[in-house]
Amino acid sequence: MASTSPSAIAQWQRIETLVKAWLDERQQLIVLLCTLQGIRGLGNQQPQHKQLQRFCELLMDYISAGYFEVYRELVNEARHFQRENPALTHHILRQLDNSTDEALAFNADFDNPAHIAEHQDQLPQRISHLMQSLEERFALEDQLILSIHQQEPPLRQAMH
């Protein structure tokens, strides 16, 4: 049986807060990405350049938070509450590498005005490809969250 101590409950709640904040950041990322998808030609339009740069910043923040905070905390939670499925977790984490590479490449090409000007003709295709890659990423991340964290909190487990 999983631990039901106050510290275990606090750990679960802390991870719940972390995951929710991260998913809120994902929602912001999706909204910006959809906005960018509507941009056909950037030209010298400063607001769109700034929007694209903001998207790149948010994308890198989101990817980094996933790797350096959320995934690590979920893996620790799985171990702590005996919800571990190493094969599934390893498979998901390896699959995330593809979309990480795509996100890093997109950021490298569109993170500042000089790069934007150099690659602006490719923007619609790159956004479309990135959207597909992120859609796959989000599905994998959701699978990871559901396989570990979206089970009942420790307190409820003790009540059943």
What's the helix count? 6
Global mean pLDDT = 85
Structural class: mainly alpha
Assembly status: single chain
Largest sheet: none
Integer-rounded radius of gyration: 19 Å
Number of strands: 0
Percent strand equals: under 5%
Report on this structure:
This protein is mainly α and 160 residues long. Helices cover 82% and strands 0% of the residues. The protein contains six helices and no strands. Helix 1 packs antiparallel against helix 2 (46-80) and helix 2 (46-80) runs antiparallel to helix 3. It is elongated, with a radius of gyration of 19 Å. The N and C termini lie close together (11 Å). Mean pLDDT is 85; it is low at 156-160.
